[in-house]
Amino acid sequence: MTSSSIPRDALFANPLDKLASFSFDEQVVRVFPDMIKRSVPGYSQILGMAGVIARRYVPENGRVYDLGASLGAATLSVAQQLSDLQQLELIAVDNSPAMTERCASLLAETLPARKVTTLCADIRQLDYQPSDLILLNFTLQFLPPEDRQPLINRLFQALRPGGALILSEKIHFNDPRQAQLLYELHHDFKRANGYSDMEISQKRTALEDVLRTDTAEQQLQRLNQAGFSFNAQWFQYLNFASFLALKGDQP
Ligand code: GEK
Questions:
Q1: Is the CB of 206 under 6 A from ligand 1?
Q2: Which among 62, 114, 124, 189 is least buried, having the fewest CB atoms inside 10 angstroms?
Q3: What percent of the chain has pLDDT over 90?
Q4: What's the fold here for domain 43-172+213-245?
Q5: Tens of pLDDT along 152-206?
Q6: Ligand 1: nearest atom to the Cα of 147
């Protein structure tokens, strides 16, 4: 798809009387690539780097999970960076039927010769196979807070020694001045990307109980508690961050 043919996100452009909670339905799927690029600072850089990071941790016959895959952008980045590893198994998982349907056809079209599976499932209930890399790219933030540590614990168990988890999240800050500044700068970022104040505010309301953020310290502590021997924040752009956690001693 060329960028000019990607439908533009205007879901919150008109005043909506009753704002329903945000959900990953067909309407969202249609505009998703445009929505996420214009809303999430650093989204493209994180995706590009996910593929680069994969090179260090994924062996010849490796297995990679992309959890909350949406349209499979992270799977695609890994597959493209590791184009020499034809035996690599890629598993994209999302619990939105509309997303997984579109994801499956996009991945089949773009990666016809690769071992790619798309599953419509809740990542809290999946039976994980031993794996080398797990991507949680802006997905954990949509789980109820009490479900986050149990999931990270399970992912740690699923990883083979030497495996890695890439976790990207919207974050908040305990320092009120830092929190306010980065909140406002994110608003400015969206405005600079063509969203009106009304769109920004309506989307914020729709996401209120759906997307609940943690601090970077909470994320690192959670990774630590799960047993990861090394974890680090490798990326931040405004209030969006990405973390790398390793199961093993070799960074
Ligand atoms: C990307 N990673 O483009 N089980 C499975 N999927 C879930 C669950 C769950 N319990 N909860 C939410 N999702 C993608 C972007 S988007 C981020 C991820 C965003 C799915 C949900 O259906 C949606 O597709 C995805 O997580 C979050 O790299 O829209 O800000």
A1: no
A2: 124
A3: 74
A4: Rossmann fold (3.40.50)
A5: 999 999 999 999 999 999 999 999 999 999 999 999 999 998 877 777 777 677 7
A6: 10
User: Cα(230) to centroid of ligand 1, in Å?
Assistant: 25
Task: Indicate the residue type of 147.
Answer: D
Structure tokens at 157: 């168990």
CA-closest candidate to residue 51, choices 121, 111, 122 = 111
Cα(119) to ligand 1 centroid in Å equals 13
Higher pLDDT, residue 97 or 29: 97
Q: 94: Cβ below 6 Å to ligand 1? A: yes
pLDDT at 29: 84
Query: pTM of the prediction?
Result: 0.91
Q: Is 54 touching ligand 1 by the criterion CB < 6 Å? A: no
What are the residue boundaries of the structural domains of the chain, listed by start? 43-172+213-245
Strands 115-120 and 131-137: what pairing? unpaired
Residue 96 near ligand 1, beta carbon < 6 Å: yes
Whether pLDDT at 32 is above 50 = yes
213-247: b (≥16 Cβ within 10 Å) or e? ebbbebbbebbeebebeebeeebebbbbbbbbbbb
Q: Is 99 in the pocket of ligand 1 (CB under 6 A)?
A: yes
CA gyration radius, the chain: 18
